[in-house]
Amino acid sequence: MILEKYDEFNTGQKQLFAKTCLKLLQNSFIARDKEDNKEMYYFLLSFKSYFDQYFDVMDFEIVLDRELGAVQLIHREGNNLLRLKKEETLVLLILRILYHQHLMKTSINDNVVIRVDEIHQYYDSLELKKKINKTDLIKILRIYRRLNLIEALGDITKANTKIIIYPTVLLAINTQAINDVYNLIANMEERNEGDENEETD
Fold it and tell me: Is 152 helix (H, G, I), strand (E, B) or coil?
């Protein structure tokens, strides 16, 4: 059935269908408000049933949140999950917290915007034994930029550079409750302290 519907597309639509599928397979997320995602987002919105049938063959499922303007591609067996290191996980959780904090003082039509140094400051406030250095933070932010979770409005290596956090960050973390995010960080801090105790015994 999908092939029959695909044949109804004109050349431009076929190219956009392929481009959108590839973007989802490579990056897992599409953000409506990200300029180079916008066309793909609205195309997927218009032909979601086509995409559903296409990805269903490979046991993938599309999660679409119209209110957030966010799309996620998930594998039903979890085969496309990204395995994050501890620092990468902490930065993602911090992005989620900063998104929540800034959202409350952001106009409904505006994106959530933070600065690079806000991430660093929040990470340092956790008082973990191992601090995150600038080079590692930049590498992590580039991962999340590639996944369409954030976008840097300038040179990402500079502390005062602004970063848009897209609502796709809400799909990236498997909970909508902000208290759960705080608890996840607290648990990671406790595990870190436990590791330190083991080293000193």
Answer: strand
User: Which tokens hold the place of 75?
Assistant: 């594998």
DSSP 113: E
DSSP state of 110: S
Please choose, from the candidates 110, 74, 71, 95, the residue with its C-alpha nearest in 3D space to the C-alpha of residue 178.
Answer: 95
CATH of domain 2-75: 1.10.10
9-47 per-position pLDDT tens digit: 999 999 999 999 999 999 999 999 999 999 999 999 999
pLDDT at residue 196, as a whole number:
45
Q: In what order do the strands lie in the sheet with 70-75?
A: 29-31, 70-75, 60-65
H or E stretch covering 68: none
Same fold across 2-75 and 86-200: yes
157 contact partners, CB below 8 Å, separation of at least 6: 134, 138
Residue ranges with strand state E in 76-161: 112-115, 150-152
Q: What residue spans define the domains of the chain?
A: 2-75, 86-200
In this prediction the pTM is: 0.86
Q: Would you say residue 96 has pLDDT above 60?
A: yes
